[in-house]
Amino acid sequence: MYNQKIAAIFYEIANMLVLDKGVDRKFEVLAYRKAAQTIESLQEDIFDLYKKYGIKGLMELPGIGKSTAAAIEEYIETGKMAKYEKLKKLYPIDFLSLTKIQGLGAKSVFRLYQELGIKNVADLKEAVGKHKISQLDGFGEKSEDDIAKGIAQFESSKGRMLLGTALPEAEAIVKQLRDSGLVENAVIGGSTRRMKETVGDIDILVTTEKSKPVTDLFTRLSGVERIIATGPTKTTVLLGIGITCDMRVVESKSFGAALQYFTGNKDHNVRLREIAIKNGCKLNEYGLFDKRGKSIAGKTEEEIYEKLGMDPMPPEMRENRGEIDLAIAHKLPDLVELEDIRGDFHVHTDHSDGANTLEEMAEAAKKLGRSYIGISDHSKNERIANGMDDKKFAVHLDQIERFQEKVSGIKILKGAEIDILKDGSLDLGNKIMDRMDYTLASIHTNLSMSREEMTKRIITAFETGYVSVWAHPTDRIINERPSINVDLDKVFESAKENNIVMEIDALPDRLDLNDENIFKARKYGLKFSIDTDSHSTSNFELLRYGVGMARRGWLTKNDVVNTMSYDQVMKYFKK
Ligand code: DGT
Ligand code: CA
Ligand code: CA
Ligand code: ZN
Q: Which candidate, 304, 198, 48, 243, places its Cα nearest to that of 552?
């Protein structure tokens, strides 16, 4: 799959264009960023789209115009992009890695290159070691410290990939295997199937009579960079996105046993095997066998679980966190599903930092079957995100009201994503908030307060009585930024008292709250909303990652407010 590769190149082009002095590139920079955003969150293979619908099909994607579509075509057809190659000669810098380091944007990366010759993370590390950065104008010791921390975070995250990158890639592989007509089954296993937020490697399972041709096909797929090991039952390749993928060929009669085994996780499997042994049986990736070695189950996962005396459970629960005991007691929760979600409370438009208009966002959500969306643009403290003050919000809300009257097939709620300021006060006045149907509150600045101060700050915000939903609560960015330091027990207690909904932000690099914190919040009897935090029309499709996280936290439909109808939701937020 080319999606991530092309998105990365576009981001880099945008970064390099920013540096292109003398010419006003603002428009072009924006075009490449928007296109990158779309492709990055696109759930289908862009190669397929192009092969099927050509350059016209590409241009129908949100945020993709004539020149970006042509660049995609050029890349698919030739494996290169002339514009990129040309810029790369001017700026031989690894922007992709360097800009991932917290606190470094394209401009500061360029300065480090100009003044210290830093081209990549290794150079940067060396410069930090020699304290060269703190000597630069405008950097200082604090930024050198921050950069050192950023490098450590960057390095520790290496190797595990976001589910949002791995899952579409795995799906594309499975689709190509199935479309070949050579396999009976091709399915995803491992952590990808369990919807874990990051994935170490992708695991694919196939059943086929034609192991050799399938293996040949697999090693030649478009997303494969090189073969690491290959044999009749297991082949490992390195994918262009930067992780490996195992494909295992298994027999039909063991398919269920193999799928169960290779879905894991390991602790869950170990526990199952112990139960099998206690019952005088043996469980492995080939099947469940009785004392004499006769197979009693193996074809399907369900029969394995049932023969072990328990209900089969969804992959997202298989983490050995108590699910096996529940399954034995026939008390598994009925987990929330993607189809249960009827609305979305976290949606940005071009009134703040979204890429699309209110009309476009509503249209896109309607197309995906959502029956309502809440518009939650940024408040003024978010200057880089074009946040609005009370006055601008008044105009903005007027506009939503006019739109509410004329739009059909979808309901629009008036909201905002309001910054929780340093002292815990909210970034908008009560009068303007009174006009809204609901509010999201979140933290975007002053992230490194002490645990005590941060806890107090958030509880103070909750006690204003103006917060409906706590958005992306812990503020982590996976592989880039740790969670804020906060006493979640105290905050959840306050949220319960103040009737505040916990968000599960579905953006693949946020997924916040995560499974563990959902577990904790559930114990306080809190409700949740699974939102996409959409900044462009293509982001609505990312909802499934939020649902995956909710299921990993064992949430049922009843726990999630945006499974309610529009009328119920309006009533819910009123109180
Ligand atoms: P990852 O790749 O680190 O994100 O996580 P997984 O869960 O995909 O782990 P992986 O790819 O190493 O192995 C796939 C599954 O195979 C794993 O979830 C459970 C099973 N498995 C692997 N090693 C063992 C083992 O030593 N014992 C048992 N019982 N199962 C194992
Ligand atoms: Ca794996
Ligand atoms: Ca594996
Ligand atoms: Zn936010």
A: 198
